[in-house]
């Protein structure tokens, strides 16, 4: 409990979590993870290596993100051509999955998250509230650009590109309002 209390003030600025590319619930342990454990809040990510991509699996291994970056740097400095090749493959993986969500990860998320489960999704150094409703994953819309959009509550998570569908509180499709109206709302908010 005291470890969790020591971390709580970091909720205002951000928590240090470090994904591993082997499972949607696999993170390198950091003291910040204790908050999720103590509150029994499931924490997920979708940045996974597809196990069928053997060269990437070999290059990434069981590394966390930070460990993989260090490995890439050391592989680039290596005279060993096999290690240098692994470093290139690992770097290409990070570059090609810069959205921090892979299709393999999305499939694993969809099959792992339980129907109706309210959880936290980590992506691009942000935490989002996620729920699975009727087999589909949804993220709670918290972007200030939607502050004036009363009917937009959830965004579907169905591809890695981030262009989900917006829904209301009952998960009914609700496209955002006219962009000019949204912009005026954003400008009013900035002015305030």
From TrEMBL:
Positions of the MINDY deubiquitinase domain: 1-171
GO molecular function: cysteine-type carboxypeptidase activity; cysteine-type deubiquitinase activity; histone deubiquitinase activity; K48-linked deubiquitinase activity; K48-linked polyubiquitin modification-dependent protein binding
Highest taxon in the source lineage: Eukaryota
Entry GO CC: cell periphery; cytosol
Documented EC number(s): 3.4.19.12
Top-level class of the enzyme under EC nomenclature: hydrolase
InterPro entries: MINDY, MINDY_domain
Annotated signal peptide: none
GO biological process, one term: protein K48-linked deubiquitination
Catalytic activity: Thiol-dependent hydrolysis of ester, thioester, amide, peptide and isopeptide bonds formed by the C-terminal Gly of ubiquitin (a 76-residue protein attached to proteins as an intracellular targeting signal)
Keywords, comma-separated and alphabetical: Hydrolase, Protease, Thiol protease, Ubl conjugation pathway
Family statement: Belongs to the MINDY deubiquitinase family. FAM63 subfamily.
Function statement: Hydrolase that can specifically remove 'Lys-48'-linked conjugated ubiquitin from proteins. Has exodeubiquitinase activity and has a preference for long polyubiquitin chains. May play a regulatory role at the level of protein turnover.
Name of the protein: Ubiquitin carboxyl-terminal hydrolase
